[in-house]
Amino acid sequence: MYCIPRVQPLGHKTRTPSIASILLTADQTQAAARGETALYTHTLTNEGAQIDTFSLSASSDQGWTTQLSQAAVTLMPGESAQVVLHVQVPADAVPDTLDATTLTATSAYGAAAYASNVDTTTATQAGYSIFLPLVTRNHSAP
Fold first, then answer.
1. Residue 103 burial (10 A CB sphere; 0-12, 13-18, 19+)
2. What CATH number should be reported for the domain holding residue 92?
3. Which of 18, 59, 105, 123 meets the CB 3.0–4.6 Å disulfide criterion with 93?
4. Cβ proximity of 50 and 107 under 8 Å
């Protein structure tokens, strides 16, 4: 038995998955009443060739309070996980104020391997009710 060497045509490249590769989807926009919380669900996928742990962070350009469902996610190659970002609209926010919150996932293999999404939250006026007093008249018979 003999082997024939395999010859690759010129210009042909073999694609090898990199150790760290991240996909984070997707940018979103919501409106939330002052004092309420906007929730954004993202999908984080490990597109790298190795198991990887991704640290998560969020930063609001208005300084609004943010919270993530988890601080880090460990994924096998090709595996995905849901990440939920909570953005708290302050009770004293001016209606129609826009906040851009950046969600970033960074690979444990280095800061050069990261992905970001930007979620936009618009502060709205909360609904309100007006309660008027009930006024009755006592009509007496003449």
1. buried
2. 2.60.40.10
3. 123
4. no
> Measuring CA to CA, which residue among 53, 46, 48 is closest to residue 24?
46
20 prior amide bond cis, ω within 30: no
Structure token digits, residue 16: 């090898």
| 45, part of any domain | yes
Q: Which amino acid, 18? A: S
Residue 126 domain flag: no
Note the pTM of the prediction, 2 decimals.
0.77
Range of the domain at 95: 22-109
d(CA 119, CA 41): 10
Q: How many separate domains does the chain show?
A: 1
Q: For residues 60 and 88, give the distance between their C-alpha atoms in angstroms, rounded to a whole number.
A: 10
Answer for the pair 27, 46: CB distance below 8 angstroms, yes or no. no
Asked, for residue 39, whether it belongs to a domain, the answer is: yes
Domain contains 75: yes
Q: Which two tokens stand for residue 132?
A: 């008027």
